[in-house]
Amino acid sequence: MKYHSINSALFIKNRKNFMAQMKPKSMAVFNANDIYPIGADSTMPFEQNRDLFYLSGVDQEESVLILFPDCPNSELREVLFVRETNEHIAVWEGEKLTKEAATKTSGVQTVYWLQDLHKILFEMSSYAETFYINTNEHYRAAVETETREDRFNKWLLAKYPAHAVAKSNPILQRLRSVKDNIELDLMQHACNITEKGFRRILGFVKPGVWEYEIEAELLHEFVRNRSKGFAYTPIIASGNNANVLHYIENNQQCKDGDLILFDIAAEYANYKSDLSRTIPVNGRFTERQKAVYNAVNHVKKEATKLLVPGTIWKDYHVEVGKIMTSELLKLGLIDKADVQNEDPKWPAYKKYFMHGTSHHIGLDTHDYGLLHEPMQANMVFTVEPGIYIPEEGFGIRLEDDVVVQDKGEPFNLMGNIPIEADEIEDLMNK
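The line above is the sequence of Xaa-Pro aminopeptidase; the predicted structure tokens follow.
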């Protein structure tokens, strides 16, 4: 891995918190992700199952974690299975985790080779009454591919039909949404790498540059700072491309007088950052562009103040909508009649700001978190308002990642990344 080793205390704590919420005489199983084929002998880069990583720190394929806190055999209360390594594998693929290295990474003391899984699982299942199976129940999930976890769950329930079944996901949704200080440090590191990338392109962008050239500059800076690269598919949208919310072609030339909307960020140690900025191609905003920019920035600042313990996500978005409505009225994009006659299900402001303002972020860009439950300290949210005006040929989105505090305003993990319009202009015209 490119990233520095993570203190195993994080994963020990995460397992302890998960097991504290399990039913008596129950065991939970977590599988690594598959390596997905492309064609011939080509595969996609491996990405670890986030839940397995959260509970073990193991970032390797063909790994399985079993948790059974009530197991009569004390050696089987936490068991990790990893693929057996050998000299041939080391030559062709590089070294894999030894049993000793797996323990050092995860803090799990009992480690077996994967070939022993069914034998050990048989013994453990004889003591258990309930299986916790892991499924993806994120509110944005739309998975058509059968995962390694899916296949295992299907096999497990067919092999042991007399056991009761419970779900790991509700526990993980709550646990993963509240970050440990080690996690916050990792996310801060990802944000710091993102800052380096953004500052790099402020000195690079000029009329005539291509969106993909900017993408290459960012990738260079991210990877040279121990990131795998982009935390998600980057959006580098100049001119009217910014009005396509998920524009990812990044294949157009940036023209004098246009703005470029960036939704780009680095990952670090599987933890994500998520940044949006909008800059002028020529280094100077027009008066109109700056007015809209400052309106978006104002909404972002006011929305951030609302992210406090006890806030409900749905109510928060209603309040942000009121702030955005006020700014759109000032800009002349909507009028009082539009507001008076608006459909409550699709308010007038939605014509120019049609997406949500915030989402959880962590091991996933759209991270786990139960939106119907009140916000808590150490939850991390994006704040990303935007105004999109196709008829004027530009769109503006600004986004930072912030940590909810026990008291007061959230802490901005991206507080050092330039955002004020004047600062952007000054840096671009050095």
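Note on the example: The longest strand covers residues 26-31. The CA atoms of residues 197 and 221 lie 5 Å apart.
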